[in-house]
Amino acid sequence: MDYTCQLTSEDKSAVVMIDRGELISYKKNKEELIHQKGDPGWSNSDTEMFPVVGPTEKFDYTIMTSRGPAVQDLHGLLRELDYDMMNKDESSVGYKKKYIRNTKVRNSKYPDQSTQEFVFWPFDFEFKKKYFLSNDALRIEFELMGEKGMPFMLGYHPAFRLSGNNTEHFTVNEKHISLQDVLDAGSAAYPALNVQDIILHKTSGYHIAMSTKGFDNLMLWTEVPGMVCIEPITAYPDITSTVLRKALFDSCLGKHHFEVLIRPFN
Asked: For 150-170, how does the pLDDT look when each residue is reduced to its tens digit (9 = 90+)?
């Protein structure tokens, strides 16, 4: 069965391809903006991070909650769940995932990259991801519905194609960040805190402006010069601490809305 769907802008200048909820292509006037699976750097092109952002190995994969310990691997269990399509038309599509508390989910990192065969979370939640393609931009909306008081961190993890020549740079609140700065940060990712907007500058092709709502922070990650992940996050993980601080988690109010706008421009 083919799970891939295509979105096309009204003026036909932009085409987006989505595979089971994952953004695998965004072409503007035939220029590919998204990192392609199989290219060096990362095996995916986008994913979500929930209910934790960052590594958990040094916490023995255990997150303490008001309902006791929960087992989580890198970036949480949401990525291990499958999306169901809710609706689709020419330029938009919506997906959702639903989780029932304490359901054990097989961990795809086991056994090669993790000692934990299963992960679980002691709260019910539903997560929706919606794409809206216009002539000028791709808007991605996220809706979290969960039990009140549930602790959570949330991040979006899209990867963008680069030239491979290490010539790109970013501006955040007039601050200049080079691609080399991001490469030097390594697996920790480069933090850009208390910001909602960023611009990726290229020497050729489309530049990319990203603006966000609800996240309030960004981190930049890559280990190769041919791609970069620009990741909106609710909190930057403290990888130096031996304790996962409660202050990094938001408390669910029942329903939360988040938004990312990706706008290519010359």
From this structure: 999 999 999 999 999 999 999
Which of 3.40.30.10, 2.70.98.10, 2.30.30.240, 1.10.357.10 is the CATH number of 4-265? 2.70.98.10
Residue linked to tokens 């602790």: 151
Task: Return d(Cα 21, Cα 31) in angstroms, integer.
Answer: 21
8 A C-beta contact, residue 172 and residue 198: yes
pLDDT at 246: 86
Residue type present at position 229 = C
* C-alpha distances out from residue 70 to 41, 43, 156, Å: 30, 27, 22
In tens, the pLDDT along 212-242 reads 999 999 999 999 999 999 999 999 987 666 6
Question: Edge-to-edge, what's the strand order for the sheet holding 14-19?
Answer: 4-8, 14-19, 22-28, 31-32
Strand partners, 118: 106
pTM comes to: 0.96
Phi, psi of 195 (to 5 degrees): -135, 150
Question: How far apart, in whole angstroms, are the C-alpha atoms of residue 130 and residue 18?
Answer: 11
Q: Please give, one letter per residue, the 3-state secondary structure of 233-254.
A: ECCCCCCCCCCCCHHHCEECCC
| Euclidean distance between CA atoms 120 and 117, whole angstroms | 11
- The residue type of 178 is S
Percent of the chain whose predicted confidence (pLDDT) is above 90 = 93
Q: Pairing between strand 227-233 and 159-161?
A: antiparallel
